[in-house]
UniProtKB/TrEMBL annotation:
<dbReference type="InterPro" id="IPR051466">
    <property type="entry name" value="D-amino_acid_metab_enzyme"/>
</dbReference>
<feature type="domain" description="D-serine dehydratase-like">
    <location>
        <begin position="326"/>
        <end position="424"/>
    </location>
</feature>
<dbReference type="InterPro" id="IPR026956">
    <property type="entry name" value="D-ser_dehydrat-like_dom"/>
</dbReference>
<dbReference type="InterPro" id="IPR001608">
    <property type="entry name" value="Ala_racemase_N"/>
</dbReference>
<dbReference type="InterPro" id="IPR042208">
    <property type="entry name" value="D-ser_dehydrat-like_sf"/>
</dbReference>
<comment type="similarity">
    <text>Belongs to the DSD1 family.</text>
</comment>
<dbReference type="Pfam" id="PF01168">
    <property type="entry name" value="Ala_racemase_N"/>
</dbReference>
<dbReference type="Pfam" id="PF14031">
    <property type="entry name" value="D-ser_dehydrat"/>
</dbReference>
<keyword id="KW-0456">Lyase</keyword>
<protein>
    <recommendedName>
        <fullName>D-serine dehydratase-like domain-containing protein</fullName>
    </recommendedName>
</protein>
<dbReference type="InterPro" id="IPR029066">
    <property type="entry name" value="PLP-binding_barrel"/>
</dbReference>
<dbReference type="GO" id="GO:0016829">
    <property type="term" value="F:lyase activity"/>
</dbReference>
């Protein structure tokens, strides 16, 4: 859990004119003072990114329930949002920790009191290694990083020379795949790395990890088979190295695109859910099933599922029908230079574009207002601050009207915004929160 005093302090931050999208009257008020005035999304400036509170709550419950039913723990990837308030939402629903991608992100999370962190990356920068060593003085802090080579292990050991280490750093050996991202490129290589970790006086071999999402980008038979084969190799690594380790082990995989394959391949080896209820079940406590490995935690790291989207994950997520897109963009028509072409005031500085362009849904007088449909139009390109909205035939758009946009890829949406308004949802445009990001 987060330290609520630190999280609550965000409501005391004073807003200013540099806060993109906020109405001018917000400047000088604290977040809590501004929200007490009952702001509506319609008064926010464009371009704008907004979140839906009901959709966020729904998705958090769906993803956590999905994991619980399959005996998986959830440590969602916090780099998707870098928003402590949204991390807390998933912790409240039963997530057992937060995954992060860089030591700087880990430092941010620790400043908010996150007690269980997985760094889905190597930890080799000497200053970062020393920082983690200091944090391990807190006996309640659980930390795991990854290593995919003997050189990585040696770099960690160099960073710990002369450092007082309260306890060894837990390290997962990372398996990769040909053409994929990081990770040892074979089971044999991963085992050699694991042996080196186990032999280290300052590190502890704590399991196996990897990322299957880089091995496929669609749901074609070839992509699905590549992911299944990779996950099966992860199990091979686990079987090969578990005898080298003392204490609890972790096996961790899973983005938001192939999470059902993680459950499918790992399923025969996963501990079953505890039948108990209450606090134990809420924290995702698991019991050992007959024949299951006695010391293994199976962890899914899906982060984008909290937001879902109207693009990439809408097309690839196996639980798309159960999730609701929780983010929406808004941009205003600023030019209508020719029939079938309108320019909007939102672009690459405002909306994600690396996994698909924004999708226009409707037109209204202001963000969050009642819309009329916008059929037959599409965004064909983005500049830094403009979107090209085109149609084969002339369309009825007036200068100053606002187009609502479905977005693709949450991971590159949040980094463009320091404060993001959250509407009540259910048709209400009442702004009930401002989510603070830390990129």
């Amino acid at each position: 859990m987060l330290q609520h005093t630190r999280l609550d302090a965000l409501d005391d931050e004073r807003l200013n004119a540099a806060d993109k999208g906020l109405p001018a009257r917000a400047a000088g008020l604290t977040v809590s003072e501004f929200l007490a005035t009952g702001p509506r999304l319609a008064e926010f400036w464009t371009p704008l990114l907004a979140l839906d509170a009901r959709a966020l709550e729904h998705n958090a419950a769906v993803v956590q329930g999905w994991c619980d039913e399959r005996g998986l723990e959830l440590m969602p990837h916090g780099k998707t949002t870098m928003a402590p308030a949204l991390w807390q939402l998933q912790l409240d629903h039963g997530a057992t920790g937060v995954t992060l991608a860089t030591p700087g992100q880990v430092r941010t999370a620790r400043s908010f009191g996150i007690a269980s962190i997985m760094l889905a990356n190597t930890l080799v920068a000497p200053d970062a290694v020393e920082f983690i060593a200091g944090e391990l003085a807190d006996p309640a802090f659980s930390f795991h990083s990854w290593a995919d080579s003997v050189a990585t292990v040696e770099a960690m050991e160099r960073g710990l020379e002369g450092v007082t280490l309260p306890r060894p750093i837990d390290v997962l050996v990372e398996l990769g795949g040909a053409g994929g991202r990081t990770g040892a490129r074979s089971v044999d290589e991963a085992v050699r790395v694991a042996e080196r970790i186990a032999a280290s006086p300052v590190l502890r071999l704590a399991g196996t990890a990897g990322y299957e999402g880089s091995l496929g980008h669609d749901r074609s038979p070839a992509a699905l088979e590549a992911v299944r084969a990779y996950l099966a190799e992860m199990l091979e690594v686990h079987e090969a190295v578990r005898g080298l380790a003392d204490g609890e082990l972790i096996v961790s995989a899973g983005g938001s695109a192939y999470l059902e394959l993680v459950a499918e391949v790992f399923g025969p080896h996963i501990r079953s859910l505890s039948p108990s209820t209450g606090a134990e079940a809420h924290t995702g406590a698991l019991r050992q099933a007959q024949g299951a490995e006695p010391r293994t935690r199976w962890i899914l790291r899906s982060g984008a599922s909290l937001l879902h989207d109207d693009g990439f994950y809408h097309g690839i997520s196996p639980i798309d029908g159960e999730l609701t897109p929780a983010m929406r963009g808004y941009a205003r028509v600023v030019s209508h230079p020719e029939p079938g072409l309108a320019l909007l005031d939102g672009g690459k500085r405002d909306f994600p574009y690396d996994e698909g362009l924004p999708v226009p849904f409707g037109v209204a007088e202001a963000p969050g207002a009642r819309e009329r449909p916008l059929a037959g139009a599409s965004v064909t390109a983005l500049n830094d601050q403009h979107a090209y909205l085109r149609a084969d035939a002339p369309f009825d758009l007036a200068i100053g009207e606002v187009v609502s946009l479905g977005l693709s890829h949450p991971c590159t949406a949040f980094d463009k915004w320091r404060l993001i308004p959250v509407v009540e949802g259910g048709g209400s445009d009442l702004v009930v929160a401002l989510v603070r990001t830390f990129f």
